[in-house]
Design brief:
By secondary structure, the protein is an all-beta fold.
């Protein structure tokens, strides 16, 4: 070993790392290799070892080297000058700290101390450089000073002791090195050997007392001294550290020895723990060491015997078809038997089969069974007869406790059957005939016994087989597809079977059609009754055999127009009939309608006068007739009018007088028939005509007569008309040439004038009284009397005092026509006693229209003093009245 004092390369501080001294060096070689704490350990000590170290101190300081958990004895000191120095008195005996003098070699003896603890100590497993950087290694081989790559993985330091300088400053300056202390694992205990009744062989169990074993070694021998042991390796306990050392101390470890052991011999077992965790990759290549071994455990002994076992001691094949073979049991499992040996010696067997020859097996292949290695064989059953069969397989073994093993075999030879169902289709109300046949497989057998038939899941019907078949009669089944289930139960060695089929019962056709009553309906009238008619019922059945009641309907309504409308029935159903509902027809025919004359105006009328005939067409039920109505007179005149909302009108002008009958006839439309002539209405036509019914004279000046307007009276009849009187109202006058009678085809004139006596609208009549039935004939007379009104304002003028020979301011007199006729102004002048003292001028026209006015300007020019009077005279034509305006003034 070495202590090498150096200087650091950064600040030049002195340090003294520990290290190793190379062997066989001279003055040309480096003698020491200084190492840091991170460098791999170079000191390996095993429990119980005593080592001698020569430590060369190449330095000038004294150091106090402490060896953790070591007893250390100084042997002697050798100076570099070759002087030998024994230990000092205070260095005698075992110490843990030794003084290192400068430039001196010291020889020490070391013995590691193993503390006795109540539990095992696991090894220290860590990185050399716990920082993980790996850049602080010296990377030298301490044994030859050659370069070496330091592997920094999980490293096994054993119990990991250290040696270092006890001067704290030196220790902190890396003057410390690890020591690998290798302690063998504690010995296992409580080793037991027993037969493994589950896997066979010898089951070995022991207590693991180690926290750092990499495995175990078991020795087996027939000599307790184990001169020629068989080795059985066992892996470490389950929980392991980074180098593969088991740490489950206190756990029970077990393994099985499956070797073939000799019956009657005694075998001895012992076990030890092995720690082989001190080699690469968990050590540097130059630090590999051999495995550490614990002491042997207690010894366990056992005498091997086979223990025979058998599974499936009874094989039941059940029913198997004759002529076939099977290795499948009735429960569906393989017909297989397992022979086991849970002892620790080989099991030997001999086989014998007794009973039915229909059974065979491969049991002879299991002549021997090693521990923990079961042997299996299969059994085959191939029946040759329709009967029950049985057999027994017997094994004779070398198991002292189970000398004989047996397997019972049973089965029955049977014949399979198959069923066919024949069921021809029938129509509802006929019986169904079902034939069921049962055949055998293999063929050549005729099944006997009873057969059942179930229809639609009902109560099974049972009948005996005759020559392998049976015929069933199903009485009048309902229409539809009926499910059949034929079943043949196992009997007389014939296996049961079943089959399904169907019996089809076809539906007969049934039609339900609508029959209207009555056969047709009238437009607007009530719908006809619709009753269903049936066709296709089987004998003895009717509507009561259907579900629901058939009802019929039509698309026609009381408002539908004339035409053909579909009708159909629905509502009845049946599972036994194929019901169809064909469509029927409801014919809507035209309704009747009656024409009625509502009025004929005027009646009586006169020849040539327009007569308006109003009429109505009334439908038979509902609806609104359209089209035209023709009105015809008994004198062959006619007119035609169009209906609107059932009514209408037309006009006739009669050219001859007299009474005649009017009738109306409706022409019909798409929904109504033409009607016959209606009840007659009487139309009377006068033979006397008046050329006008009224005269309008317009405006006429009161007190004057208008121009003549003529009324012509004509006899258009066939008889002479007697004229008894012609009269007129006030304000009117007439002259005529009519005389007392008027013959057929003759006419006369009545001249009428308007002579108003007052202003305003004046009305009157011209009344003709005669022998015609229309007498009297009246002509309305209308005229307006008009007259001017002369209004002069103011009614007087007063000029007051005016200096003589001076003209006063003008004063105005306004003349206004407030009447309804033009006002004729004859003259405007001055009059009175002093007319010469006044003067006037005006622009009034000779005729002043109604509502118009004009002005008269009057002045006073007195020529002498005193009161003066005069008048302004407005003279107008009749019927207006002239007016005078008094004038007064005083000359000053």
């Amino acid at each position: 070993k070495a202590i090498q004092e150096l200087f650091t390369l950064d600040y030049g501080r002195m340090n003294a790392p520990l290290g190793t001294e190379l062997p066989n060096v001279n003055f040309q070689n480096q003698t020491t290799i200084p190492l840091g704490y991170v460098d791999p350990a170079t000191e390996i000590v095993r429990q119980g070892d005593t080592q001698l170290w020569k430590i060369t101190h190449n330095g000038v300081d004294s150091h106090f080297i402490h060896f953790h958990l070591f007893n250390v004895q100084v042997i002697n000191r050798v100076g570099w000058d070759g002087s030998l120095r024994p230990p000092d008195a205070n260095e005698m005996g075992w110490k843990d700290t030794v003084r290192m003098n400068p430039l001196e070699d010291i020889l020490v003896a070391l013995q590691p101390i193993t503390p006795q603890l109540p539990w095992p100590i696991p090894n220290s497993i860590r990185l050399n450089d716990i920082t993980g950087m790996g850049n602080m290694f010296t990377n030298l081989n301490p044994f030859n000073n050659n370069g070496a790559i330091t592997a920094d993985g999980a490293t096994n330091f054993g119990w990991e002791y250290v040696w270092h300088c006890h001067i704290l400053g030196h220790e902190e300056n890396d003057m410390m090195r690890p020591i690998v202390f290798q302690v063998p694992p504690p010995a296992p205990s409580n080793l037991l050997a027993a037969a493994d009744t589950v896997n066979g062989g010898v089951k070995l169990t022991w207590t693991d007392n180690s926290a750092n074993e990499t495995g175990f070694t078991i020795q087996r021998d027939v000599d307790p001294a184990f001169p020629n042991p068989a080795l059985i390796p066992v892996v470490a306990s389950a929980t392991q550290n980074a180098v593969g050392e088991g740490t489950d101390w206190g756990a029970t470890i077990s393994t099985t020895d499956n070797a073939a052991l000799t019956v009657g011999a005694t075998y001895y077992y012992r076990v030890q723990a092995v720690d082989d965790g001190f080699k690469t990759p968990h050590e540097q290549s130059y630090n590999n060491t051999s495995a550490l071994l614990s002491a042997w455990s207690n010894m366990a002994t056992i005498q091997p015997v086979p223990i025979a076992g058998i599974s499936a001691t009874s094989l039941v094949f059940g029913n198997v078809t004759v002529g076939s073979s099977t290795q499948t049991l009735a429960n569906g499992q393989l017909a297989q038997v397992t022979l086991s040996n849970t002892g620790n010696a080989t099991l030997t067997l001999s086989t014998a089969l007794t009973g039915s020859a229909d059974f065979s097996s491969t049991a002879s292949t299991c002549a021997s069974v090693t521990p923990g290695a079961p042997c299996q064989f299969t059994v085959t059953y191939a029946p040759t007869t329709v009967a029950a069969a049985s057999a027994t397989i017997t094994f004779t073994t070398n198991d002292p406790a189970h000398g004989t093993l047996t397997v019972s075999l049973t089965g029955s030879g049977v014949v399979n059957t198959a069923i066919t169902i024949g069921a021809p289709a029938v129509t509802y109300n006929a019986d169904g005939v079902v034939t069921v046949s049962v055949t055998s497989s293999p063929t050549g057998f005729t099944p006997t016994g009873n057969l059942t038939l179930t229809v639609d899941g009902g109560t099974p019907i049972s009948q005996a087989l005759a020559s392998g078949s049976s015929t069933f009669t199903i009485v009048a089944p309902n229409a539809g597809t009926h499910t059949l289930l034929a079943a043949y139960a196992t009997q007389g060695g014939f296996q049961g079977s079943s089959a399904t089929g169907s019996l089809v019962v076809n539906q007969p056709s049934l039609t339900i059609s609508p029959t209207p009553n009555p056969a047709s309906m009238t437009f607007g009238g009530p719908l006809p009754g619709l009753t269903p008619s049936y066709s296709g019922f089987v004998t003895g059945q009717g509507p009561g055999n259907l579900t629901g009641t058939a009802t019929c309907s039509t698309t026609a309504t009381s408002a539908t127009t004339v035409g053909a409308y579909t009708s159909v029935c629905a509502g009845a159903t049946s599972t036994n009939y194929a019901i169809t509902y064909p469509q029927g027809v409801v014919n809507v025919v035209k309704a009747t309608a009656a024409a009625t004359i509502l009025s004929n105006v005027p009646s009586p009328s006169i020849v040539g006068q327009i007569v308006t005939i109003s009429f109505r067409v009334t439908p038979q039920f509902t609806g609104m007739p359209t089209g035209t109505v023709t009105v015809r007179a008994s004198t062959n005149e006619s007119c035609t009018g169009t209906l609107a909302a059932g009514v209408g009108s037309c006009t006739i002008t009669f050219s001859t007088g007299g009474a005649r009958n009017l009738t109306a006839a409706y022409g019909g439309d798409t929904n109504f028939l033409a009607s016959p002539a209606s009840a007659p209405a009487t139309q009377t036509v006068s033979g006397l005509t008046v050329s006008t019914a009224s005269l309008l004279f317009g405006n006429q000046l009161v007190g004057t007569a208008s121009a003549v307007q003529t009324v012509t009276l004509s006899n258009v009849g066939t008889t002479t008309i007697t004229i008894s009187n012609i009269t007129w109202s006030a304000n009117f006058s007439d002259t005529n040439n009519c005389g007392g009678s008027l013959g057929p085809g003759r006419s006369c004139r009545i001249n009428v004038r308007f002579v108003p006596t007052t202003a305003g609208v004046l009305r009157g009549t011209l009344t003709i009284t005669d022998s015609d039935f229309t007498s009297p004939q009246v002509v309305a007379l209308t005229g307006t009397g008009v007259a001017p009104v002369n209004q002069v304002l103011p009614t007087s003028l007063a000029f007051g005092n005016v200096p003589i020979r001076t003209i006063s301011p003008a004063q105005v007199v306004t003349v206004t026509n407030t009447g309804t006729a033009p006002l004729t102004i004859n003259s405007i002048g001055l009059g009175g006693a002093n007319a010469n003292q006044f003067s006037q001028n005006n622009l009034c026209p000779a005729s002043l229209a109604p509502g118009a006015n004009c002005t008269v300007n009057v002045t006073f020019r007195p020529s002498s003093r005193g009161n003066k009077t005069a008048t302004v005279n407005v003279n107008v034509a009749a019927p207006a009245t002239s007016k005078t305006v008094p004038l007064t003034g005083t000359g000053q």
